[in-house]
Design a protein that fits this description.
The chain is an alpha/beta fold. About 45% of the residues lie in helices and about 15% in strands. The chain contains 22 helices and 15 strands. The strands form four sheets. Strands 3-4-14-9-10-13 form a six-stranded mixed sheet. A five-stranded parallel sheet has the order 8-5-6-7-15, with helices on both faces. The protein has a two-stranded antiparallel sheet with strand order 1-2. Helix 5 packs parallel to helix 6. The structure holds pyridoxal-5'-phosphate. The site of pyridoxal-5'-phosphate has 18 residues, from helix 12.
């Protein structure tokens, strides 16, 4: 299968690239993204009875990727590192018409592992085969950092530099990064917030001097963020898996449609669901759940993407604190083509907003609906589900429940994107109903005792592990630190 560019071609880059080209070098003409030229069709019959890793192998193969079988098989074998090697993604019945697909049973307890585990192996194998060396730069507000480090740790031909805002992540998230030992990893705290970290990274990517320094060392830059199609491809798989699980549980009849409820930020998870639908999965609506940074709610309900009077709000679901949601562009491309996509994205860059026509909005709403939760609503849902249904949710997953209430009369799958253990202080506040701030470790222990839920070993061990990355610098000194590391 070939990949084309979401904003059309600039006459300098190739018009079509292979999967491996698209993932090694993910930036396309005019600042656009690579998108599949067409999507494969999948017959559900073919997938029945397969284990998760066989399912992943089969679905990814359908895309006609130029990755050797052996590499792909090794990559999907990494799902065996999840809690239950035979069932890495449990699908749990929580209410009459609600099953929760738990995507967080991997090494860093958040759904980023679903894609980053196999992706890291594939990228490193490709680099090795080509005899090339890559630097992956990541700026993180919490979940991408740990998952990226865990994915590339001690892998050949790849180095990772990860920048996080000091004081801007949870204790658990910070410890997951600063205790991660690997000779090819560098973790740098900066004095500033997540925006500062991201801006520092952008400056670095645009710096001629930095590029020249890398060239001298024979190092190329790549990206492991969710615009990389190598991540998206693995995010189509679990939508098929959820559907098959619901069939097996008797929650669905053959061919019956289901709604997918997705806590969304950069829209990678939701895009995976949209592609799965287009590949033949019986999906009715993809329901986009947001927090108070509800730019996607506005887009899907009103057809406007308007950043003009918005500032990013810090919420209790920080992985969804995003205003520029990158993967929406791939849906625009799929529905309206490259010319219109370029027009809309140019407008967003220049004027900070765009607006869809009435017909375009209707086309979008055929597949999507959206709503958002305030922090207060998130806390209410966490408490309600813990006490009434004996099911513990993290603050990101809790945002799906408002949409479930709206679509209760039909079968739904909600995606759980993080384990409660990553956000224990928020969860405890929700359970207690008061605003007392606990450190992570204490909150973990109280919740575990009170509700009889287990804390996984990988989380408990964090508090004992030695800190191996203690660098904290001013924004201006990041470049120097990274070059020193290389
Ligand atoms: C990354 C993340 C999200 C957002 O997923 P997107 O694919 O970027 O929409 C939601 N919840 C958690 C816990 C995450 O880590």
């Amino acid at each position: 299968m070939v990949f084309v560019e979401s904003r059309g071609n600039d006459g300098k880059r190739p018009k079509e690239v292979s999967f491996s080209q698209a993932i090694l070098n993910p930036s396309a003409s005019f600042g656009g993204l690579y998108v599949p030229k067409s999507l494969p069709r999948i017959d559900l019959e073919e997938l029945k009875g397969k284990s998760y890793k066989e399912l992943a192998y089969t679905v990814v193969k359908k895309f006609g990727v130029d990755i050797e079988d052996e590499i792909l098989k090794e990559a999907v074998n990494l799902y065996e590192r999840f809690d239950d090697p035979n069932n890495p993604v449990p699908v749990v019945e929580v209410d009459e018409n609600l099953c929760v697909s738990e995507l967080y049973h991997g090494p860093t307890r958040a759904f980023k592992d679903m894609a980053l585990q196999p992706f890291g192996y594939i990228l490193s194998s490709l680099a090795k085969k080509r005899g090339e060396n890559y630097l992956i730069l990541a700026a993180t507000s919490g979940d991408t950092g740990p998952a990226t480090l865990e994915s590339f740790k001690n892998r050949d031909n790849i180095k990772v530099a990860c920048i996080y805002p000091q004081g801007g992540t949870s204790d658990v998230q910070r410890l997951q990064m600063v205790t991660e030992d690997g000779k090819n990893l560098k973790v740098i705290g900066i004095k500033g917030d997540f925006d500062d970290a991201q801006n520092a990274l952008k400056n670095l990517l645009g710096s001629k001097r930095f590029k020249e320094s890398l060239e001298e060392k024979g190092i190329k830059l790549s990206a492991a963020n969710s615009v990389n199609f190598g991540r998206i491809i693995f995010q189509t798989v679990y939508h098929f898996h959820s559907y098959l699980q619901l069939l097996q549980k008797g929650k669905l009849k053959e061919g019956q449609k289901v709604n997918l409820i997705v806590p969304s930020g950069n829209f990678g998870n939701a895009l995976g669901g949209y592609y799965a639908k287009k590949m033949g999965l019986p999906v009715d609506k993809i329901l986009i759940a947001s927090n108070e940074n509800n730019i996607l709610t506005e887009l899907i309900n009103e057809g406007r993407y308007d950043l003009r009077n918005r500032a990013l709000k810090k919420t209790t679901s920080p992985a969804m604190d995003i205003l520029k949601s990158s993967n929406v562009e791939r849906v625009l491309y799929d529905k309206f083509g490259p010319k219109r996509t370029k027009e809309l994205m140019d407008m967003l860059n220049e004027k900070n907003y765009y607006e869809l026509t009435k017909e375009e909005l209707e086309a979008l709403r055929e597949d999507f609906d959206a709503d958002f939760c305030t922090d207060e609503e998130i806390k209410r849902y966490i408490k309600e589900y813990a006490l009434d249904k004996n099911y513990l949710l993290d603050p990101h997953t809790a945002t799906t429940l408002k949409l479930y209430e709206k679509y209760k009369s039909a079968p739904n799958v909600a995606y759980s994107t993080a384990e409660w253990t990553k956000f224990a202080p928020t969860v405890l506040k929700a359970l207690e109903g008061e605003d007392k701030a606990y450190p992570d470790k204490e909150a973990l222990e109280i919740i575990s005792q009170r509700l009889g839920v287990k804390i996984p070993k990988v989380i408990l061990e964090l508090f004992e592990k030695p800190v191996v990355h203690d660098t904290v610098v001013e924004k201006e000194d990041i470049e120097k630190e990274i070059l020193k590391f290389l």
